[in-house]
Amino acid sequence: MSTSKQALFTPARVTAEGPPTSSPARVVLSVQDVSISYLAHRGRVRAVSQVSFDLRQGESLALIGESGCGKSTLNLGIIRLLPKTGRVDQGKILYTARDGSIVDVLALSDREMRAFRWGECAMIFQAALNSLNPVIRVRDMVYDTAEAHGRHDRARIRNRMLDLFRKVRLDAERVFNAYPHELSGGMRQRVLLALGVLLNPQVVILDEPTTAVDILTQRTILEVLKDLREAMGFSIIFISHDLSIAAEMADTVATMYAGEIVEIGPVNELFYRPRHAYTLGLLQAVPKLSAGAQDLSSIPGSPPDLIEPPSGCKFHPRCPFATERCRHEPPPLIEDAPGHRVACFESERVLAASGPARQSTHRLD
Amino acid sequence: MEITSTPPVAPSEAQAALARPVAWWHAIRRALTSYTAQTIIQGFFTVWAVMTFTFILIRQMPSNPVQIETERLIREEQLSYEEARSKAAALFEFDPDQPVIEQYLEYLARLIRLDLGKSITSTGTPVMDQILQYLPWTLFSVGLGLLISFTIGIFVGMAMAYWRGGAFDNIVTALASILFGIPNYIIALLIILILGVQLHVFSVANTLGRVDPTIEPGFMLEYIGSILSHAILPVLTYVAATVGGWILTMKSSTLSTLGEEYVTVAHARGLPQRRVLTAYVGRNAMLPLVTRLAISIGFVVGGSVIIEDVYRYRGLGKFLTTAIVARDYTSMQGVFLVIAISVVVANILADLLYGVLDPRVRIGKER
Ligand SMILES: Nc1ncnc2c1ncn2[C@@H]1O[C@H](COP(=O)(O)OP(=O)(O)OP(=O)(O)O)[C@@H](O)[C@H]1O
Ligand SMILES: [Mg+2]
Predict the structure, then answer these.
(1) Which residue range forms the structural domain that includes residue A77?
(2) Is the CB of A306 under 6 A from ligand 1?
(3) A272 has a chain B CB within 8 A of its CB
(4) Predicted TM-score (pTM) of this structure
(5) How many domains does chain A have?
């Protein structure tokens, strides 16, 4: 299914990386020390601060964290579609093209950026219901997308799209010719999903793809997503409030708090041996059918002001483990266990505390 | 679309014959309740109501054609009242003492045969002929003004929304608001005073009227040029008076469209700016303006009365003022009827056009 699209995306190389390696662990997207802020009336909203992570080929990374912690901002920054008031203050976003060349996304020209979007990195937005132009047909949006990336063979595009629509379990012919309002929310979400992989991108970003739909539609979407990923091998950045979905979809999970990644690691590590008090708090707030209400706890307080964040560890005002040191010194993100990095001075105590809780409350799979 | 209720294949001829009147009745009922039929019926009703209302209203105006002519004769020919009165009454085929209800029924009876009657003051001239003679000039000048104004409004409004907060946006917003606030006749007077009298950009005497009367009519460059040069001032006035409204509406509509998710998604799909601006932003932002445009087209006929008077541009508006001054009831009635019909027709067109542009409406209407 892979088509010859590399010819379209040939921005200047930043670094030559030798011949492309066939190793599955190749890093596709490397976010390095990225900070993003918005200009607001009261001052600069530091929505993302010094975030770093690597996304490997075929890997699925889940971003979890409370509303307003900067998940969408980070991903809009990656495809450089921040609103006019937002800007990337620092950092690098290195993308490894299929031919092995590495480019800094933040340094791409407008034309190269247009080719990068959707062709290399597709983003399915949070408000999927409103993501389709109400006055034109689905097929015109498909052709628009393809033609923007230099594919003018309509018959081929149509066949490929119908094929993908069938893969996401849609009535392909009807949907192809429909107007958006003729489709249900779940159908629109799947249309976007299929449209998202039309150009065979290496990275697909999904911003809460399942929030606006019912639980059964949600299942369908997750299943078709898994199928597509298996067939096409793209990497995923997955934003979700639902930890059980994150557990199901992700290889790696990153917890964000107040614009920072406070903990990142393999899914089982992070969910069964959390080392950050915030991750632990999120896990303990998950309701379980089997667990009684008394087992549920929520994190006291609310997320901090991003214009004037607290000193030291930004989580300390809400943290039951906080010490004097946490109030003054920001903890660095360091590797505690293999592949498991955490920004917490008290990670050992958190890990010890999560031990007993682990058995009863948060079995996620 | 509703499912047709024709019965399944009839088992026998006799039964089919029996079923026929019922099927007919169904067909008629379906036709009458269809969207198109209802729109047309509604339109007819509106026109009739406006016609009746104006018929009564204009006869409530003080004085009447005979009275006015009598006064003119007394004033200009120094006749006695009696003489003047009988002369005036003999001049017109109009009896002011006839009850209004009788006049109304007579008028209605003629109207059904598409006869607008004869002008009262220009004895013998059919009102229809007069309207057909004046209407094209108004349609041309006001229509051209509207077209120019709408086009400028769309593009400038979109550009302002796109570069919102910039110098261009701020300056044009101020200008548009000012223009929007000034009535069109003031603009007309200002144009004459400033451009004509003060700055001598044009000669006032040569541009008034609708065409140079010394030039033979025909498809010649000279004649057409004269038409255009005489239309410049009214058209300029219409544009100046309405462009502010179009600009401001388009700006706010574009602003809200730019905030829509599908615009961001279009960018995320790597679409070129041009395509996003036309098919995604422009087309959606224009939707609310289409209705306004169609309604304005409806008022093309009636919206020109004062401007045509100022510029001595003899279109339908000027014809209407003359008719009002002379209390030429039938002519006035004819013009009001034309205005009512054009507003109704324009609204129907707006509906159709909206349906073409917005698929969501198109579906709703078929129900
Ligand atoms: N256009 C904007 N101008 C100013 N501040 C903004 C803007 N957009 C977002 N923010 C702020 O940036 C922070 C991060 O917002 P973001 O939308 O990235 O959060 P999120 O993690 O995606 O939340 P959610 O889970 O609710 O989608 C929030 O505090 C928000 O108030
Ligand atoms: Mg979000």
Answers:
(1) 3-250
(2) yes
(3) no
(4) 0.80
(5) 2
Q: Quote the tokens at residue B135.
A: 């209407």
* C-alpha to C-alpha distances, A93 to A15, A85, A274, B312, nearest whole angstrom: 13, 20, 27, 69
- Residues A230 and A278 grouped into a single domain: no
Q: Which of A115, A132, A181 sits opposite B270 (nearest CB)?
A: A115
Determine the pLDDT at residue B30: 76
Q: Which residue of A has its CA nearest to B269?
A: A118
Protein residues placing their CB within 5 Å of the ion ligand 2: A 72
- B67 alpha carbon, distance to own chain's centre: 32
Indicate whether residue A72 lines ligand 1 (CB < 6 A): yes
Q: Read off the CATH number of the domain in which A133 is found.
A: 3.40.50.300
Residues B258-313: tens digit of each pLDDT: 999 999 999 999 999 999 999 999 999 998 898 888 878 877 776 678 888 888 88
Shortest CA distance to A243 belongs to which of A205, A274, A217, A213? A274
Q: Tokens representing A109?
A: 């020209």
- ipTM higher than threshold 0.95: no
Helices (H), B92-215: 100-112, 127-162, 167-181, 184-190, 204-207
pLDDT value, residue A297: 67
Best of A36, A44, A67 to mutate for ligand 1, by most ligand atoms within 8 A of CB? A67
Q: Whose CA is nearest to atom 26 of ligand 1?
A: A67
